[in-house]
Amino acid sequence: MLELTALDGAILIDKPAGPTSHDVVDAIRRKFAIKKVGHCGTLDPNATGLLIIVLGRGTKLSEKLMGDDKVYEGTIKFGEATDSYDADGEITNSLPVPPLALDQLNEEATTFIGDQMQVPPMVSAIKIKGVPLYKLARKGIEVEREPRLIHIYNFRFTAYAEPLATFKLACTKGTYVRSIAHDLGQKLGCGAHLATLRRSVSGKFDVADAKPLDEVLKLSTVELEKRVIPFLRLAAA
Length: 237
What we know:
The chain is an alpha+beta fold and 237 residues long. The chain has helices spanning 21-32, 62-66, 102-110, 133-138, 177-188, 213-216, 221-227, 231-236, and strands at 9-15, 37-39, 48-55, 70-78, 80-82, 91-94, 114-118, 127-128, 131-132, 148-161, 164-171, 192-202, 205-206, 211-212, 229-230.
């Protein structure tokens, strides 16, 4: 029978902008001296929100949790396309923004709903022959990427003040929201990139129940144990 401890499970982190998902894992591992620590779904450095951190035997469930559907909120900036499709990249094209209205944006957004094949951006962590794409992109090398099947459940804009539009999007795992922003900009003829992104939901877990990283790192081990979602509850999620 599997013997579980109070640190076998997961904690919910509200990731700030700046650190990578791996940075968060490393900080938790070092602070609490836990050998096995992982995360369930990468957030880009400047993205914020829900990051599920698995601890101890909880790491055995990382693939299961990573496969859950996600909900994101964020903003798209029209008129500027970037090489990374987000605000971290270099501007590759700058064009005037045509007159846009919220209704028009939502009409365009409906065309993304459903199944689609999405080509991952060059600036991503996907590996080709063991080399992350972003490392090739830094050298100015572009390679062919295999399209991946994704599904958009819902995509809706809630506000627009030129050139920024606020949105909410629900999707399957592996969806590059910045690619959606880029593709929308291409359709509108003015270019666009993802300005901000926040993950609010992953599977049955909500960022409202997460704790900011800096606060977690101030906890004692006993206090951390009280916040751990137990292994058996995770397995049933």
